[in-house]
Design brief:
By secondary structure, the protein is an alpha+beta fold. The protein contains five helices and three strands, in the order αβααββαα. Strands 1-3-2 form a three-stranded antiparallel β-sheet. The protein is globular.
Amino acid sequence: MHRKLMKDYVEILLLNEILRHRNIHGYGLISLIEKRLGFKPSPSMIYPLLRRLKERGLIESYEKPVGSKKVVVYKITKRGREYLENNMDLLLKAREY
């Protein structure tokens, strides 16, 4: 799959999964993508994409205590929902590839 198309596809997939699961942490997203695509993306692939989505205002994050640790949880913004609706064709293109 073309590298740009793959990045765009994973970006849209991340937004879609964040929307579907409301509040989810990075490793949860990695697990969901692994189940959906059959490959396990590395944290070094996912976290930079999450950071870019956050910088663009498509998602927001907050820390949530889990036991004695805190995890960063992501949720989609209104702008992210609009972007997702306007770019769902990227999922279709990637699936055809």
